[in-house]
Amino acid sequence: MRVLLTGATGFVGSHVLARLLRDGDHSVAVVLRAASARWRIADLLGRVHVIEGDLARASELAEPVGRFSPEAVLHLAWGHVADREQSPLLQVDNVRDTVQLVTLAHSAGARHFLGAGSQAEYGPCPHGIDEGQPTRPSTPYGIAKLCAGLLAEQMCRALDMRYAWFRIFSAYGPMDLPTTMISRVGRALLSGERPATTRGDQLWDYLYVADAAEAIHGVLEEPAARGVFNLGSGRVQTIRSVIERLRDLIRPGAELGLGELAYGPDQLMHLEANVERVRRTIGWEAVTDLDTGLSNTVAWLRRVQGS
Ligand SMILES: NC(=O)c1ccc[n+]([C@@H]2O[C@H](COP(=O)([O-])OP(=O)(O)OC[C@H]3O[C@@H](n4cnc5c(N)ncnc54)[C@H](OP(=O)(O)O)[C@@H]3O)[C@@H](O)[C@H]2O)c1
Prior knowledge:
The chain is α/β, with parallel strands linked by helices. The protein has 2 domains: 2-170 and 207-231, 3-Layer(aba) Sandwich (Rossmann fold), CATH 3.40.50; 173-205 and 234-270 and 287-305, UDP-galactose 4-epimerase, domain 1 (Alpha-Beta Complex). The protein has 9 helices and 13 strands. The protein has helices at residues 11-22, 62-68, 88-107, 140-159, 181-190, 209-221, 239-250, 276-282, 290-305, and strands at residues 2-6, 27-32, 49-52, 72-75, 112-118, 162-168, 170-172, 196-197, 203-204, 206-208, 227-231, 237-238, 257-258. The strands form 4 sheets. A 7-stranded parallel β-sheet has the order 3-2-1-4-5-6-11, sandwiched between helices. A two-stranded parallel sheet has the order 7-10. The chain starts with a strand and ends with a helix. Residues 6-7, 9-13, 31, 33, 36-37, 54-56, 76-79, 81, 97, 116, 118, 168, 170-171, 177 line the site of NADP nicotinamide-adenine-dinucleotide phosphate.
């Protein structure tokens, strides 16, 4: 299939790109900004068609995207993921970019539009979440994701394109952003520091990023897969137990600063995906257990930190 991928330089996107290229059955184009940091996909760039451009200037993408003529558009790009709680106006830009991309996809002849949403679309929920759960997002990021997903769905229906939207829970793994809890604690432990954390009573669903990429690839390849799909592991553990496992992998016996950080006002205490829908639709389930996923993550962190 001819696939146009946005967000390929990002954490999730880089793993999705690797999965798309693995079996050699897709022709892939990626949209890259001039300033995009390309280190995550440096070894893959020779195998993809690069379209230089910015989603914020969609009109400039029309000609090169039309020339590539994708059958499917896989939209993982999103600006301001790391500082997502602070920037309502910048989140609005992401909604506009998503809407423009659906139009662009249709004009270029694509029949499938798939995009990345987030668990944040649901808002706080003290139990497992399936796709029928009412959406009550409590952050600008969650509100913008929900808005982008609904607009894309409505447009795809009108334009007769297949629509799929991935509500990703917490992905982790090699090449993750340095700001996530696992990255931050892992890096501190490897540097010999005592990581300050919350008490860690939150129950959390962590999904290994290669499993997320496998699910996204599976939905792309199944034409009957439509609508919203939760992507999580479907398993929860306390954040404290994740921190302790990281410590045991990196510096057993090292002191932890559990409880040194207060919970934020919007702290989610329970995040749990029900992944029955994606399992039934494409037969996917998360296959990487937390110990394996954390070991791979720590091995990568060791390489980049030289420790
Ligand atoms: N990671 C998770 O646990 C998680 C959870 C829920 C949902 N998600 C969603 O999954 C997607 C991928 O997340 P991630 O963690 O991989 O994020 P990330 O590492 O921050 O990657 C974001 C990507 O979007 C690209 N981008 C942003 N604005 C753009 C623009 N105007 N034009 C072109 N490209 C643009 C970035 O390109 P540059 O390199 O040019 O900056 C980068 O490739 C996002 O939609 C995110 O909201 C992720």
